[in-house]
């Protein structure tokens, strides 16, 4: 770990904690992966956690903090009534892996011809 060269990300459950500090190892941008599209402003994510998050108390706490940070509050005035992306959290070899998937509705070819 080199000082001033590593990327850390903090998560906390406001206002009274707890807080989590993660060392980011692999970061890939959307441009780097050549992915198009973006989730709409105000859209709600669907959160998915692998089953390993329920195995130990510290991973259960991590799941709770992630849910608090990434989830949109119910009946929030600026939230939209649809879900257009999925945030997935996996535990592999003691590390948390995060993936963002966009949900794209495919138009049936028969419906396309009608329009």
Task: Walk me through the structure.
This protein has 115 residues and is of the alpha+beta class. It is 21% helix and 31% strand. It has 3 helices and 5 strands. It has helices spanning 30-33, 57-70, 109-114; strands at 7-12, 19-24, 44-49, 83-92, 95-102. The chain has a 3-stranded mixed beta sheet, with helices on one face. Strands 1-2 form a two-stranded antiparallel ribbon. A hairpin with a 2-residue loop joins strand 4 (83-92) and strand 5 (95-102). It is globular and about 60 Å long. The mean pLDDT is 80.
In a nutshell, what does this entry contain?
The chain has 115 residues and is an alpha+beta fold.
The total beta strand count reads 5
**Cα gyration radius (Å):** 18 Å
Terminal-residue CA separation = 58 Å
**pLDDT averaged over residues:** 80
SS content category: alpha+beta
**Given the structure, what is the number of helices?**
3
Low-confidence stretches: none
Largest beta-sheet characterization: 3 strands, mixed
Topology as a string of helices (H) and strands (E): EEHEHEEH
Indicate the proportion of strand residues: 25-35%
Shape: globular
How helical, in percent, are the residues? 10-25%
Spatial ordering of strands, largest sheet: 3-4-5
């Amino acid at each position: 770990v080199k000082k001033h060269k590593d990327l850390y990300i903090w998560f906390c459950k406001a206002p009274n904690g707890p807080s989590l500090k993660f060392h980011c190892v692999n970061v890939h941008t959307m441009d780097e992966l050549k992915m198009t599209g973006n989730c709409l402003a105000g859209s709600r994510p669907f959160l998915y956690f692998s089953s390993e998050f329920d195995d130990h108390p510290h991973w259960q706490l991590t799941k709770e903090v992630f849910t608090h940070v990434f989830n949109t509050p119910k009946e929030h005035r600026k939230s939209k009534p649809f879900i257009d992306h999925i945030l997935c959290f996996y535990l592999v070899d003691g590390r948390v892996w995060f993936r963002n998937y966009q949900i794209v509705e495919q138009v049936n070819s028969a419906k396309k011809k009608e329009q």
